[in-house]
Amino acid sequence: MTRILVVGTMLLVIFVAVFRQRIFLRDPLGKMERNDVAVDGARLYINFSNDVLVEEPGTERRYLVQGWSGIPGVPQILGCVQGLACWTDADHASVYPLDGRGAGAKAAMSAKVVTFADETGARIRVQLR
After folding, report:
1. pTM
2. 4 in any annotated domain
3. Which one of 72, 78, 95, 122 is at 20 to 30 Å from 106 when CA atoms are compared?
4. Is residue 83 part of a domain?
5. pLDDT (tens digit per residue) in 6-38
């Protein structure tokens, strides 16, 4: 029985190490603001590279901002375990750009704060912990 647990744990560690760019874990202490007003109940997820996935409460809106491109968008393929973790289709996930073309303003990203404009032009500010 112990051998099964050890092998299972090793396989899980290897899986997470290989797919660390695709796996987003919940940041329960993060905060989201829309036009400088706090959004209660927003779920924030981050991956190994501090890319950010945001789920707004009461809507089906999901925003993904990846550091390699800086273009905020809606993930084309996304699987989630409710409130715990999400995963994308690739290390550089495919997204539908919020402006429809991907030529709009890029997100401003740091290790702790991400700001961008959504499809309506509202300023979104995400603070990570």
Report:
1. 0.85
2. no
3. 78
4. yes
5. 999 999 888 878 888 899 999 999 999 999 999
How many C-beta atoms surround the C-beta of residue 38 within 10 A? 11
Token digits for 125?
């500010």
Name the percent of the chain in helix, strand, coil, to the closest 5.
Answer: 15, 35, 50
Total structural domains in the chain? 1
Quick one: CA torsion of 71, 72, 75, 81, rounded to 10 degrees? 130
Going by pLDDT thresholds of 50, 70 and 90, the confidence category of residue 104 is: low
**101 has a pLDDT exceeding 80:** no
Residues 129, 118: Cα–Cα separation, whole Å:
22
Question: Is residue 7, in this structure, part of any structural domain at all?
Answer: no
How many angstroms separate the CA atoms of 88 and 80, rounded? 9
Inside any domain, residue 6: no
For 101, the domain range is 21-127
3-class SS at 2? Answer: helix
Contacts of 22 (CB under 8 A, 6+ apart): 47, 87, 88, 89, 90, 91, 93
